[in-house]
Amino acid sequence: MAHELALNGIVGIDFDAETVSDALALISGPVRIRLNSGGGIAFDGTAIHSVLSGYRGHKTITVQGIAASAASVIMMAGDRIEMSAGSVLMIHDPSQDITSYRGTSEEHRRVAESLDKICDAVAQIYAQRSGKPISEIQKIMAAESWFTPEEAVAAGFADAAPADGKQAPPAEFDYRAYAHSPSNLIHMSVQNDWINDFSKAPIMANQSTVQADISEPKVAPASLAPVMSAADRSDPRKELKRVTALTNLAMQPLAQRVGSTTRLEGWIDEGVTFEAAQAFVLSELAAQSPVTRRSSDEARSCGVSVGHSWESGDALNSKIVDGIYSRVNRAHQPTMGREFAGASLSEIADICLQQNGKSTAMASVASRVEMALHGTSDFPSILRDVGNMSLSNAYEAAQSAIKQTSREIAASNFRSLHSVKVSAGPDLEEVNEHGEFRSGTVEEGDETFAVKTYGKIFGITRQAIVNDDLDVFSNMFPLLGQGAANTEAKLFAGLLEESTGLGPKLSDGKTLFHADHGNLAQASATLSVASLGTARVAMRRQTGLAGDSINVVPAFLVVPPELETLAEQVLTEIAASEVANANPFAGKLKLLVEPRFTSATAWYLCAAPGAPDGLQHAYLDGVTGPQLFTREGFEVDGVEYKVRMDFGAGFTDHRGWYMSPSA
Question: From the UniProt record, which GO molecular function terms apply (predicted)?
Fold first, then answer.
């Protein structure tokens, strides 16, 4: 049976990260968290989200009444999120109504910069949960968006909106603090005299860490100021620089692992220097030793949060690739890597470095990306795999129609490929009274083709990765995938149109389509049931090498776009009242349209691949389609990619194809 935990009231006042952590420490396994809060202190909201994300049991968060502002951030930590009947979700940019600063312009700038950092961190949380891009999340936050249960589910912020259950009233909160509060919430705030007291006194009074004797020297809580190194705060410019540096430090993923967001306010208020905070973070990270603490059981049961995954190696890489690809291809719904769907490329670089035991807490974004690109991390491989998915998806979607008529064979090298032919007919012969079997010989056919290499090299700059620019994955890789498919399609179409439309010359010195081959209409015939009937008879009458009938069955009708509509009409099934009016080809031929044909009137009838062999294609070593390779950039300051495809196609026999030539 799942445990339950109720989080009601003002975030950071009625409950905070420490009380939530203490409550979770007493339980294990699944837990249902009932949340009803109008918001509170932004730092505490992100801190509680971090605590809940680290809990290894399954978390169902049920919103009862309301989850607004900081409470909406807490809500995102659920493995399953339910919106009760009548409940409300509100998402907006973090704000700070009451400050302890003197009010100078410099200090207001400091507060604004701190809020910007919080805003960025919170946007990442919303993006990870909903799968929406950061840019869309930022617009939702800036607009102060309110959601009904159904709207929250549709937007990806919740999983379910059960209609049953008792409707709970919203938590006590002065909702006039928000710009677009619903009128009923404002009315309740006024009618009930709800006020927002953001003083820490109520919750601190219930915590054993508070000094009982106020006459004793004041000691800053360890959660806020672990290193008391007083900074010179007399110069506003130096103070702004200190606060900015501390804020940047606290918002880094690795620093957040040691509770930096909950410590930031204390660092600022207590005058902690950047150097002291930096030393503390590095010391705490070293003490955690994350690599040695993880076990297989922990990897299977942990919560999901970017920067906190307990998996490693290929399993983690696969999750990251799955998540990032959902940003590249909006149609892709991440499954195993949902928690990484909103992660930036620089955050992924951080995770890769962490997996290699490298501390990046003090490095700039550009430096961390540089380390991930050129070190021993898996970052380049992850980018390559995302590119491969994008490349392959576009390649598969743009496949040549004619390729369906070709049989794929194996190629182990770039030498000419020969087809195999039987010199005698395929019939079995009667064995005489002496038990003698007569032999047929198997020979290499004279028709050949070879695999050739096609490719392109391009680069992704370090600047593009730092800027989280995914255009190269969403634009360049799909274009190259389409280009690879187009390369194949042009080769297929070009083979059919060689020799002024009669196809390639075969080993007998005649073109693929030739009167002597019995597969060429005497003159251009308008596509119709009658002309298809003539073509089918010609294919049925084809004979093998020994002159025996091989009964070729047509399977495909291949036409240019100009004949597509007519072909659809010719192949349409008709409910005829007389036998003479019935369509014998309805449902028997598959229509293929090739836009690369230069002729608007020529059409083809062909058999299924290998029945008999006609058109064949091959990839080197059976590696189908384009492949992506990567290396550290030399001419490009970043990563260089090479797209390569080893492919070849050719006709090995004329018997499986028939053509009606151009008019």
Answer: ATP-dependent peptidase activity; ATPase binding; serine-type endopeptidase activity
Give all strands (DSSP E) within 57-128, no chain letters. 59-68, 80-83, 88-91
Q: Is the pTM of this model over 0.70?
A: no
Crossing angle of helices 274-288 and 236-250, rounded to 10°: 10
DSSP 544-586: -TTS-B--PPEEEEEE-GGGHHHHHHHH-----SSGGG--TTT
**Are 334 and 131 spatial neighbours (Cβ–Cβ below 8 Å)?**
yes
> Which of 519, 557, 523, 555 minimizes the C-alpha distance to 537?
519
pLDDT along the chain (663 residues), means of 10: 83 87 84 92 87 89 93 94 92 67 63 80 89 91 91 92 81 85 82 71 37 36 46 70 74 72 80 78 57 31 35 77 87 82 83 73 72 80 88 89 91 78 55 64 64 87 81 81 92 94 92 95 86 93 83 93 92 54 74 94 93 90 86 72 91 93 76
Output the 3-class SS for 202-228: HHHHCCCCCCCCCCCCCCCCCCCCCCC
The answer to whether the beta carbons of residues 376 and 353 sit under 8 Å apart is: no
In DSSP notation, 331-400 reads T---STTGGGTT--HHHHHHHHHHHTT---TTS-HHHHHHHHHHSSSSHHHHHHHHHHHHHHHHHHHT--
Q: Count the Cβ atoms, other than its own, within 10 Å of residue 53.
A: 22
Task: Supply the pLDDT for residue 294.
Answer: 31
490 backbone φψ class: left, alpha, beta (φ>0; ψ -120 to 50): alpha
In whole angstroms, what is the distance from residue 368 CA to residue 466 CA? 9
Specify the amino acid at residue 638. G
Which one-letter amino acid corresponds to residue 166? Answer: K
* Domains, the chain, ordered by start: 3-192 (3.90.226.10), 224-271 (no CATH), 313-398 (no CATH), 410-425+443-660 (3.90.1690)
